[in-house]
Amino acid sequence: MKYIDEYRDKNIVLGLAEEIKKISTKKLKLMEVCGGHTMSIQKFGLPYLLPKNVELISGPGCPVCVTSREFIDKAVVYSRMEDVIIATYGDLIRVPGSNSSLDQEKAKGADVRIVYSILDALTIAKNNRRKKVVFLGIGFETTAPASAAGILKARMAGLRNFYVYSAHKVMPPAMETLIDEGVEIDGYIGPGHVSTITGEGIYLNIPKKYGLGVVISGFEPVDLMQSILMLVKQLENNDPKVEIQYKRVVKPEGNIKAQQMLDEVFTYGDDWWRGLGVLKNSGLKIRESYSMHDAEVEIPVEVAPPIEPKGCLCGEILKGVKKPKDCKLFAKVCTPSNPIGACMVSSEGSCAAYYLYNR
Amino acid sequence: MCLSIPARVDEINGEIATCSVGKSNYEANLQMIEFEDVKVGDYVLIHTGFAIQKLDAEEAEASLRTFDEFKELNDQLDKEEKEGGSHII
Ligand code: SF4
């Protein structure tokens, strides 16, 4: 397939590996922020191609993984309401909440529907005028514009029964917090699809304030190996900066149209991340002018303080200080068919990626 | 969920494009990009039902060209490996 196969060429990957070996002298820890990168890195076995001094660690870029149990618990409460239809991306449905999951509620008769796009949720709202459709908005800057577009369309179409419950988050506060907290990171493999929307500007503080490089990377093995090479070069030359490897998709200014939609509908607020806690201005909240489509405003619910599962190291793994294999439950008690923590649910979660490709 | 795929635009109807990846077909809403610029035969990146960027064919070719030397280097290493019987990579 075009734009996929060329970037899986084994000879190019091995050539890049050889080049990395040749020039890297320092001991380095490079963090791939994005869960999509984690999956690709494990799937193609890239760590085995790198010299011993170059280590890859996974970061907090799996949306399902960083989402709070409270969010799931509230979604469960919504799903139990007679007049509510839940529309959600498939990743979320099996994430365990404190006492139940959306999957379990669905089995008990709740109307929970998996959608591929928020546009499908709008169609459900159109066809079920007497019901309230609550769309669960999770994801970073890549996915949030779609939620903005959905809300704008709902307003235009007068769909008063359409609501978004937003747990959308933005990446830079998490990336900066990890450095502030002293996690050992020598450079970031920057998230390619987040940057498709935002452009490179959101990372400029990282070299400036922290002296760390960021290379925005594509998702195929050739992309990732080239990005690692670019970071190694920066580090060997003591020249940290923001660079784009994924030029076929990421423009320095990003996608302005998507940014405008995002800004029209959302504003920043503090938000909770698994492993990192509450980070200032790291969440996207629906603006007051669109509050008629904000589930939290229109259908407020209360839940008890969430219970996190005992023994799950998901938070530490998202910070890059532990690996899935450090968790005693990994692959024994906790598996993709019986996930204990969120990191085992989504295919972008570190635990799921290690379970599939690197057990 | 954050996965996005490069898909070929086969047909455009207003703000909706019918696209294909290999043998699978997808619909992409074009309102998030400058869709006046999108033509049949272009590639777009689809994410949760929306095209979020048009692929830049020139950049793609340019980046692949820079890898030609690695291919050569590797072919050469392969040859040396075979001749010398040692494992290099
Ligand atoms: S293996 Fe399961 S229990 Fe252990 S950290 Fe991962 S998600 Fe949590």
Alpha carbon gap, first and last residue of chain A: 29 Å
Strand order of the largest sheet of chain A: 2-1-7-8-9
Distance between the termini of chain B: 34 Å
- Named at the architecture level, the CATH assignment of the domain at 64-170 and 254-298 in chain A is 3-Layer(aba) Sandwich
- How many beta-strand segments of chain B? 5
CATH class of the domain at 64-170 and 254-298 in chain A: Alpha Beta
Coarse morphology of chain B: elongated
Strand content of chain A: 15-25%
In CATH terms, the superfamily of the domain at 64-170 and 254-298 in chain A is HypD, alpha/beta domain 2
Biggest sheet details of chain A: 5 strands, parallel
How many structural domains can be distinguished in the coordinates of chain B? 1
Radius of gyration of chain B: 19 Å
SSE ordering of chain A: HEHEHHEHEHEHEHEHHEHEHEEHHH
Describe the structure.
By secondary structure, chain A is an alpha/beta fold. Chain A has a domain at 64-170 and 254-298: HypD, alpha/beta domain 2 (Rossmann fold), CATH 3.40.50. Chain A is built from 15 helices and 11 strands. Chain A has helices at residues 10-23, 35-43, 63-66, 69-79, 102-107, 118-127, 144-157, 172-180, 192-198, 205-210, 221-236, 256-265, 295-298, 314-318, 350-357, and strands at residues 28-34, 54-61, 84-88, 112-114, 132-137, 162-166, 187-190, 213-216, 242-244, 266-273, 277-286. In chain A, helix 1 (10-23) runs parallel beside helix 11 (221-236) and helix 2 (35-43) runs parallel beside helix 15 (350-357). The two termini of chain A are 29 Å apart. The model of chain A has no long low-confidence stretch (mean pLDDT 95). With 89 residues, chain B is an alpha+beta fold. Chain B has a single domain (5-82), classed as SH3 type barrels, CATH 2.30.30.140. Chain B contains 2 helices and 5 strands, in the order βββββαα. Chain B has helices at residues 57-65, 68-84, and strands spanning 5-13, 16-21, 24-29, 43-47, 50-54. In chain B, strands 3-2-1-4-5 form a 5-stranded antiparallel sheet, with no helix packed on it. In chain B, a hairpin with a 2-residue loop joins strand 4 (43-47) and strand 5 (50-54). The two termini of chain B are 34 Å apart. The chains are: A alpha/beta (359), B alpha+beta (89). Chains A and B meet through helix 1, helix 6, helix 7, helix 9 and helix 12 of A and strand 1, strand 4, strand 5, helix 1 and helix 2 of B. Iron/sulfur cluster binds next to helix 14 of chain A. Residues 312-314, 317, 324, 327, 329-330, 334, 340-341, 343-344, 351 of chain A line the site of iron/sulfur cluster (SF4).
